[in-house]
Amino acid sequence: IRSLISGSQGPLEAKWRYVFECMFRDLGFDNDSNEVWKQAPFQGRFFNAQQLVANLIDYMDKDSESYNEQNFEKGVEGEIKEQDGDIFKNNIIQQIDEIGTIPGFTASRTRKLLPYVTTYGEKKTVNLNLASRRILKCLSPEILPNEVDKIIEYRESEDGPFKVDTYSSLIRGQMVADSTWNDISSIVSVGPSSSASAYFSILSKVDYGTATYFMRAVVYRWSSGDLPEIASVEIF
Prior knowledge:
Distance between the termini: 22 Å
Protein name: General secretion pathway protein GspK
Helix content: 25-40%
Order of helices and strands: HHHEHHHHEEEE
Strand content: 5-15%
Number of strands: 5
Organism: SAR324 cluster bacterium
Mean pLDDT: 89
Number of domains: 3
Structural class: alpha+beta
């Protein structure tokens, strides 16, 4: 989720803005009009997909003004009054539960979003060998459904997964159009390499009598030969 901002509080990363907007739309955040914010000073207000992205940017960027770019919804940070408190931290998100404090990210929306975002890791790329269909189709407005199908089919085939030294030549022109590859190449990767995935999310379910519990754990490993270590655990 830190990919939206360059550095700790730097300028917007435009490609990632589209990825998040597309993902929020795909999760239904333009159509769940009952998901209004219940906390002051924006109590009763509905935030659509673009506005949610703008609020995320406002939360992490260094200024105290509303995010305001042409052809995109405006943020709300500039509407905050001194008596409202520090709603926008103006720093990168450190803990995933911070998302639920940002205007528009209701409990229901946050639950839907959590499987697709993390605050862990320093690499600002999507692993093509692991990303879900939802993420792949949101990498670019240029990518087509059949191109996403080709990526998934290859990585799950006997020839897959993608290898770091050949994936670029395999995908460009064969699985996606040249223009699409030019658009996404800077935000995708495969492993093992310096940009391989190190963090993984595990969701487990336990039925005990009449009760049902879920546990979400984030684990990490620095190399393929290491045993994973637990970074965080949440039971709900």
